[in-house]
Design a protein that fits this description.
Blueprint lengths: L14 E4 L4 E2 L4 E4 L4 E5 L14 E3 L12 E4 L3 E9 L3 E22 L5 E13 L4 E6 L14 E5 L3 E6 L2 E6 L3 E5 L2 E5 L2 E6 L4 E3 L2 E14 L4 E2 L14 E13 L4 E3 L2 E4 L2 E2 L5 E2 L2 E6 L50 E3 L2 E4 L3 E6 L4 E3 L13 E4 L3 E6 L4 E18 L4 E17 L4 E9 L3 E6 L8 E3 L2 E12 L9 E3 L3 E11 L8 E2 L4 E3 L7 E7 L2 E7 L6 E5 L3 E5 L1
Parallel strand pairs: 3-43, 6-8, 7-8, 8-9, 8-10, 9-11, 9-12, 10-13, 11-14, 12-15, 13-16, 14-17, 15-18, 16-18, 17-19, 18-20, 19-21, 20-22, 20-25, 21-26, 22-27, 25-28, 26-29, 27-30, 28-31, 29-32, 30-32, 31-32, 32-33, 33-34, 33-35, 34-36, 34-37, 35-37, 36-38, 37-39, 39-40
Antiparallel strand pairs: 1-4, 2-3, 5-7, 23-24, 39-44, 41-44, 42-43, 42-45
């Protein structure tokens, strides 16, 4: 079962409740019963701001800094410590070519005209919530996407320099004006417990955002949860436009995209200096499935400049690569993970409930000099996805080489130009086609179970080009009528290795079997669970399709028993 996200007590993170999981054990038995969920609950509890002490800002020598017109200025390198309550004031930092550390020790800072924490210029700015402290930052300006660099575009705003948010304390940021955190260069978050409520983006780093080690982050926002927006993507070799998630527990409720990278998203395990390993856990709810509503800020939730890609975020329309009934989805981009160049997932637990695609790459461009691969690569991790539109959509190539993927709900579960499956355990459902490729589907390993709507003009596996299988196990479930097929291709379909079990029709072009492939007769009734034994491995599948035609082709021996 999924680990509990709640690690600290500042807020209760939404928990996605699954009543049945798709599990692979180490003893050669695979349970592939249909996966459903029993809904989800959302609850965010914020500690009351009870800070009343007078505000102080001390320099590295513990000398107090005096304000001028409510502004406390830092102009040189060093460690500074803030505590107490500052109403309609600001901490302003202008220390070129310097490193500044600002420690927060039970601070409450509010401003209704400029960013409460504003960094004009600083090579490195570290914002640290001290152990045991609870700190509040309020940007109380009127909601406005057009705020200038002079005024600051976030409650914490860094105009020049890299920002690192860290510490073992708690930081609560409320932005009624724009973003919660906005850094025009790189932004890193590690270990801190942080809740951000913002009408625009939660965390924006123009060049790069890195989440690492063990932070607990909750974001409720009217645009994108975490976003990069560097327009000079020709510098991608310097990691411009990247978002790295290398640890931590993240829960994002966004009206727009959950995580939106101008260039690429990398989700993996990470290590600290002591060699400790951290694996991320990510929950994302978007648009009408999030706790952010249109009424929260009606002037800002219709897609501002914080994101990229117009309505739908580019790519193919909701009806799939060859049309069909459009999916019900947001009229602005509301994806869980979105990038242009690529998305790589090698570790972690990812749960999504999106009013759009869950995982999406597209060829939209902020910089016309860049050619995007628009690929998605999944080599590890556990994914549980619910999507109003596609669960996983790559404008070019989707590659699954590992991991445990379950699509609980989608319009089309997997969609790409080319789909390659070489490993992992994948169990998907689509209310339209289960899998849809415009050019080719290639299976060389792993386990792939595909279900489509049993009552519609839908295909389990649909390739507008070819289907080629050289290994692995594929179970394709088609509709209850001959209107469509469990597997259908416009080009050649062939199997020369592995096993394919087809519940329903094969498309008009049929399936070519290689010389080492045998046909097996499987006695399966119309519904209920069945144990399929393929060579020495047992698989449990659930068949809810009343159209009882079953075909099996395999390079190894296959048998079936009714449970």
């Amino acid at each position: 079962m999924r680990k509990k996200l709640m690690k600290k007590t500042i807020f209760i993170i939404p928990i996605f409740v699954l009543s049945s999981l798709f599990l692979a054990s180490c003893n050669g038995s695979v349970n592939t019963a249909d996966v459903t969920d029993s809904g989800f609950t959302e609850s965010v509890t914020i500690l009351d701001d009870t800070i009343t002490a007078d505000f102080t800002l001390l320099d590295s020598s513990s000398n107090p800094i005096s304000p001028v017109g409510g502004v406390y200025s830092i102009t040189s390198a060093g460690i500074y410590t803030a505590s107490g309550k500052l109403n309609n004031g600001q901490i302003y930092i202008n220390a070129p070519s310097s490193q500044v550390e600002l420690y927060l020790s039970n601070v409450s800072i509010a401003n209704d005209s400029v960013s409460p924490i504003f960094v004009e210029n600083c090579t490195d700015f570290d914002l640290k919530a001290l152990n045991g402290s609870v700190n509040y930052i309020y940007d109380n300006r009127t909601a406005d996407y057009s705020l200038s660099d002079t005024d600051g575009r976030g409650a914490v705003y860094v105009a020049n320099g890299d920002l690192k948010v860290k510490g073992s304390g708690t930081l609560i940021i409320t932005s009624l004006a724009n973003s919660g955190i906005h850094g025009k260069d790189n932004v890193t978050v590690q270990n801190v417990t942080m809740l951000i409520k913002a009408v625009n983006n939660g965390i924006r780093g123009n060049d790069k955002v890195t989440i690492k080690e063990n932070p607990v982050i909750g974001i409720v926002c009217g645009n994108n949860g975490i976003v990069t927006h560097n327009s000079n993507l020709s510098n991608s070799g310097d990691n411009h436009g990247y978002i790295y998630i290398q640890g931590g527990s993240l829960t994002i409720n966004s009206y727009g995209d959950g995580i939106d990278a101008a260039y690429a998203i990398e989700i993996s395990s990470g290590t600290d200096r002591e060699g400790n390993t951290y694996t991320p856990s990510i929950d994302i709810y978007t648009n009408k499935y999030s706790s952010y509503t249109v009424s929260s800020s009606p002037s800002l939730v219709r897609g501002g400049p914080g994101g990229h890609g117009g309505p739908g975020g580019g790519g193919f329309d909701g009806g799939g690569m060859e049309g069909g009934t459009p999916a019900e989805k947001s009229d602005t981009s509301a994806k869980a993970l979105k990038a242009n160049e690529h998305i790589n997932i090698s570790a972690g637990q990812i749960y999504t409930y999106t009013y759009d695609d869950s995982i999406h790459t597209n060829t939209n461009s902020l910089d016309t000099s860049v050619t995007y691969s628009a690929n998605i690569n999944i080599s590890g991790g556990t994914l549980r996805l619910k999507a109003s539109d596609d669960a996983i959509h790559a404008d070019k190539t989707l590659t699954i080489s590992g991991g445990d993927i379950t699509v609980i709900e989608s319009h089309e579960a997997l969609e790409a130009n080319i789909i390659n499956v070489s490993g992992g355990i994948t169990n998907v459902f689509g209310s339209d086609d289960g899998i849809n490729a415009s050019s080719a589907i290639n299976v060389s390993g792993g386990y792939l179970e595909v279900s489509a709507n049993p009552n519609g003009d839908t295909d389990g596996i649909n390739s507008n080009g070819t289907y080629t299988q050289t290994g692995g196990v594929v179970i394709a479930k088609g509709p209850n009528s001959r209107m469509a097929a469990a597997i259908d291709t416009d080009g050649a379909a062939s199997i020369s290795g592995g096993t394919i079990i087809i519940l329903g029709e094969i498309g008009e072009r049929g399936l070519t079997k290689g010389s080492g492939i045998s046909s097996y007769s499987l006695s399966l009734h119309a519904s209920g669970n069945h144990t399929i034994k393929i060579d020495s491995v047992s698989y449990t599948i659930s068949n809810q399709y009343s159209y009882g035609k079953t075909q099996c082709y395999s390079s190894v021996k296959v048998s079936a028993d009714v449970n």
